[in-house]
Design goal:
The chain is 44% helix and 0% strand. The protein has four helices and no strands.
Length: 100
């Protein structure tokens, strides 16, 4: 698989997860638009994000809010494949009157 975001994640000493790739894709978009990264969506690894600073002043925060509303995630899903192995669980819920 080839994409700039995927390649960036593979450079790190980190097991690939699609959700981290999607966060990184979103951050790249915010950095392009606001020149800083959104602290609310920082990936879970401790690497610098494209040599950008966090969005901490009010102007930056307003920019991230505006651009979040304009963001189209479809492109990120095209750049971030599912991981090769994953674990998923089926959730079931039921109730019973007590005492039965």
């Amino acid at each position: 698989f080839k994409s700039p975001i995927y390649d960036e994640l593979k450079k790190l000493d980190y097991e690939y997860e699609q959700r981290s790739c999607l966060k990184l894709c979103y951050q790249k978009y915010i950095i392009e638009k606001c020149k800083c990264y959104d602290l609310n969506y920082k990936p879970i690894f401790d690497q610098p994000l494209f040599d950008a600073n966090p969005c901490i002043n009010l102007t930056d925060v307003y920019c991230t809010m505006r651009e979040y509303a304009n963001f189209d995630a479809k492109k990120c899903y095209e750049e971030c494949p599912l991981e090769c192995k994953s674990i998923s669980y089926e959730f079931q819920s039921w109730y019973e009157d007590y005492p039965g």
